[in-house]
Design a protein that fits this description.
about 60% helix, about 100 residues, 2 helices, mainly alpha
Length: about 100
Amino acid sequence: MSASKDSRQPDQDRDLESKVESLERENSSLQRRLDRALAEIEALKKELEEALRSLKRQAAPFSKGGPNPTLTTGVAKTEKSGGPSPPSPLISTAASLKIGQKCL
């Protein structure tokens, strides 16, 4: 029995060595992928920190002096004048047309 066992031993050894080499290659490949992923995570963390820091540095809307007191809105102007605003000067006259008439 030892003779048959010895004849199978070299084949099994080669299979095992081949398997070990394959697993070592896979391990090193996965290690490289892990290193790249960790580096990308660190870069993204730094980018996020910079973005959050820049939000804190934004200027206030009225950083120098107060708001302009003469600034008025369209509603305030119409209320001051006592009525609606006059019609646009682009519309000068109204035209009435009968059905079938063409406008020139």
